[in-house]
Amino acid sequence: MSTGTSALLPMAPAPADSVQATLTATHLGDSDVLLRYFMSLRSAVDPALARQYPTFTGKRYPLGRCLEIRDAVFAVLQERVNAPQADADAVIADFLRRGGSARKIWGVLRDTYFQNAIQLGTWYVDVANDTVVPTKPPVEILPIADADMVAIRDYRHFAAIAEKYWKTTIYRNSVFPQMAAIFPLVCVNAEGAAWLAAASDQVVELTRRNAFQPSLDALAAFPEPPAHGVALLTRLAAREVDPLLDTDGDAVQCVKACIAERRHDDIDYRQRCVAAYRRLRAAVPSV
Asked: Percentage of residues in the chain with pLDDT exceeding 90?
């Protein structure tokens, strides 16, 4: 459901070009109509999501569920434009057939937090607008140029948002040197949970496109993780038999070796690192 975005990082918001601007103005010019439409889609997915995800770290739905809500609404949108049930479905379907773009986006919103949204032509469509502040309207629609959403620039940018949004502290990943090229950071929160970062396709692709130099920069920029965070991660890794989770070695030297071996072009290495990350993350005690 997207066109002309291959040069962007995964899920990065796209600048409003003249083609999308013309198509949007012609077919989707009325934001009030779009707002009512996406409110109806949000209402359609809420009951099932609330049952499936009643709480998030002790907070009631919809708090913390922007990913799940965005993905559910986008799935319904795809179904509706492929088999229109209402006039609005048909209008969006026609917009897409003529070259309009509909895509999932993720990034830093208003320099405050990470957010999942939808870009529909030159519209920013946030169907999970109430997942941080529950008193906000569930859906917000703005011109993409006015939304103030940007892609992650580097690991310092990621860390600055993560620390204030997730209430976590960011450290260098010296725990698992073989993973540091893809996951150069460790997050530790006040409750003692620890996990690797950044688990975002956008950020992983950012460091891969730049031959892992951003990961080297991150290892130089952030301090060593605290002993309790290292102990937790080491204990979790002990359950796994995976050389990527070996704690021996120097992270900087391992990343330099990855660069020399051009592992930034190695999809298998990326996938194995992501799989190891997911196993570790799933084992982190709920806090």
From this structure: 93
What pLDDT is attached to residue 58? Answer: 86
Helix (H) or strand (E) holding 46: helix 31-52
The gap from C-alpha 139 to its chain's centroid, in whole angstroms, comes to: 19
pTM for the predicted model, two decimal places: 0.93
> 53 near 159, Cβ under 8 Å?
no
Q: Which residues of 168-186 are buried (b: 16+ CB within 10 A; e: fewer)?
A: bbbbbbbbbbbbbbbbbbb
List the one residue out of 241, 283, 269, 107 whose CA is nearest residue 180. 269
> What are the tokens at 94?
């026609």
Unique residue bearing structure tokens 């992983």: 204
Buried b (16+ CB within 10 A) or exposed e, 33-54: ebeebbeebbeebbeebeeebe
Roughly how many angstroms between the first and final C-alpha of the chain, as a whole number?
Answer: 37
Q: 3-state class of 31 per DSSP?
A: helix
